[in-house]
Amino acid sequence: MDVHIEDAKALLARTPEALAGLLAGLPQAWLECDEGPKTFSPIDVLGHLIYGEQVDWIPRMKIILEQGEAREFDPFDRLGFEDLIAGKSVEELLSKFATLRNQSLKELSTLKLEPALLVRKGTHPALGQVTLGQLLAAWVVHDLGHLAQIERVMARQYREAVGPWREYLPILDLPRSNS
């Protein structure tokens, strides 16, 4: 499927509400559960998404549009969120993410992207040459992947508790991820 700008924006706009539906009002144990050492909990994922809104998606799009391949993207610190979430409630973080995402979508609209611009190229520090369309598609898939990750991490908390139903619940045996 080709990247369609308006479809991507519509999907990106849904992430804050989806996260709120999954996380708002949950006990801390559910927010902090993970899949083992060096893996993200649901609250970590939320922090990671907040940090990405601040330093990743729109800034990289601007680099592509303004400088192309002449300037490599700044490296992304996958753990750059840790100070952002320290001591904050899930409600504060959900609100912050919703505000930042709304700002990102407004800024995305001001970029006046057209399909012809999606082939413009930039340089990722690890991946090399990428296009604006690939970056936009990656943003959408990144959101969807992290929503699925939160659901998988939370489902795994009842991995043994489901007893014999486990064979009918494949989410419990999907490979874990480190982020």
Question: What keyword list fits this structure?
Answer:
mainly alpha, globular, 179 residues, Four Helix Bundle (Hemerythrin (Met), subunit A), 55% helix
Secondary structure: elements and pairs:
Layout: H1 5-23, H2 28-32, H3 42-55, H4 57-67, H5 82-85, H6 90-110, E1 121-124, E2 128-131, H7 132-156
Antiparallel strand pairs: 1-2
> Unreliable segments (pLDDT under 50, ≥5 consecutive)?
none
For the termini, the CA-CA separation is 26 Å
**CATH H-level homologous superfamily name:** dinb family like domain
Q: How many strands, which pairing sense, and closed or not: the largest β-sheet?
A: 2 strands, antiparallel
The CATH class label is Mainly Alpha
Count of domains: 1
H/E topology pattern: HHHHHHEEH
* CATH architecture grouping: Up-down Bundle
Structural class: mainly alpha
Number of strands: 2
Report the β-strand fraction as a percent range.
under 5%
CATH topology: Four Helix Bundle (Hemerythrin (Met), subunit A)
Number of H- or I-type helical stretches = 7
The percent range for helix content is 55-70%
The strand order across the widest sheet is 1-2
The 3D shape can be described as: globular
Radius of gyration (CA) equals 18 Å
Outline of this structure?
Helix content is 55%, strand content 4%. With 179 residues, the chain is mainly alpha-helical.
Please tell me about this protein's structure.
55% of the residues lie in helices and 4% in strands. Helix 1 packs parallel to helix 7 and helix 3 (42-55) packs parallel to helix 4 (57-67). The protein has helices at residues 5-23, 28-32, 42-55, 57-67, 82-85, 90-110, 132-156; strands at 121-124, 128-131. The protein has a two-stranded antiparallel sheet. The chain has 179 residues and is mainly α.
